[in-house]
Amino acid sequence: MSGLAPSRAPAWRLTGLPGLVSAALRAMWPIVLLLPAWYYKHPLLFGLRHLETAAWIALAVFALWRWKHWMPAARILFATALLLAGGQELAWRLQREAVLAAGPAMQAVGRHFIVGYTDFAEVAELAEKGLIGGIYVGRRNIRDRSFAEVRAEIAALQERRRWAGLPPLLVAADQEGGRVSHLSPLLDRLPPLAMLAEEPDPGRAARAYGQRQGSALAALGVNLNFSPVVDLKPAGRPDGDLFSDIPARAIGTDPEGVAEIAAGYLDGLSAAGVRGTLKHFPGLRRIDRDTHLHPARLAVSPGEMAGDWLPFRTLAGHAGSAMMLGHVTLEALDPRHAASHSPAVVAGLLRGDWAYDGILLTDDLNMGAVYNLGIGRVAAEALAAGVDLVLVTYDPRQVYRALYGAAAAFEDGRIAAARLAESARRLADFLAAVR
């Protein structure tokens, strides 16, 4: 009998059920780490952003401590996850530094961005350096705060713009009435505009509604409201629609009735010094997917869309309004780009065929329909097509990626200087009416 102690097999060579369980856990951990590494700093994880890095490091340390003798394949997966997360963090930091250096290209494109914010100092720096043209005020900004506090914060940002010799910020909100009333309860929650269709004079009732809502918004410091929704009301809510809910938000099914109410509402807002926004061109009535999460396509001709587009076209030149472009691909015009960044839709249809010279803005570029294409790429393509304002609201820190991509496109000629100059003129005219 040998005097040597029996050798101990590595943990990953354990046999039987315990060995299988241990092996499965060791194989699973690198995959568990790969998922958050792949989605590192993704808008879907914005709610966990303050924990994201620490949680990922804690998971990695725990996995290394618990399973020191990983199988070779697991080690490769773990190293891949580490490089992926670390690379994305480094790229984001470098892009942020490049943006905050506030070079001429960054400022040239920056005036075309409206951003949400959670940190006053961060958005104030962007505002003072001319790296944004507006802010979005939403639920996060009013939570546990008084009307006076929010108003003072907006006024402080506008004062910093004046000190810097820059135009005032556009201050945007999403106060449609009904279920989308993101500044309530700070502001009164009004019923949806659809309720006005029952009034004896819907247009007059809509003007009174708009003036009431606009006065409250203006008192807070808001000068641009993302309303009215002029998508025609669909028959029902599509399966998988978690967020859009156009049936509850649309004014009605009759294009002319929708246009009448929307026109009165815009006039009421304008009387209070607030601009409105027609949304979401080319319309979400026929869409069976939620663009907050997925790309959506319309396989119908422009002729078939005439009724859906009547409110947009009727009100396209209406004083006091902008138009929001949805992340919907019109296959007949441009099968490769959603309307929000399509040259065929923006420069061809709207600026060309419709001769629309008003403000065009994108829906939020954090939305799943376009974000995975690259937020910098989509921002650049939108501005190159002739869009005036790019929204980065849900996850404000994506603005560094978006600005970096747009500035790079401007520097290498993918965004024409003449196109940005035309847009700057439109924005100056737009701002003149809301000061």
UniProtKB/TrEMBL annotation:
Keyword Mitochondrion: no
Reactions listed under catalytic activity: Hydrolysis of terminal non-reducing N-acetyl-D-hexosamine residues in N-acetyl-beta-D-hexosaminides
InterPro entries: GH, Glyco_hydro_3_AS, Glyco_hydro_3_N, Glyco_hydro_3_N_sf, NagZ_Beta-hexosaminidase
GO biological process per UniProt: carbohydrate metabolic process; peptidoglycan turnover
Known EC number: 3.2.1.52
Record keywords: Glycosidase, Hydrolase
Gene3D superfamilies for this protein: Glycoside hydrolase, family 3, N-terminal domain
Sequence ranges assigned to domain Glycoside hydrolase family 3 N-terminal in this UniProt record: 120-428
Class of the enzyme per the UniProt entry, highest EC level: hydrolase
GO MF, one example: beta-N-acetylhexosaminidase activity
Pfam families found in the cross-reference section: Glyco_hydro_3
Family named by the database record: Belongs to the glycosyl hydrolase 3 family.
Database matches in PANTHER family: BETA-HEXOSAMINIDASE, BETA-HEXOSAMINIDASE-RELATED
Descriptive protein name: beta-N-acetylhexosaminidase
Species: Pseudothauera nasutitermitis
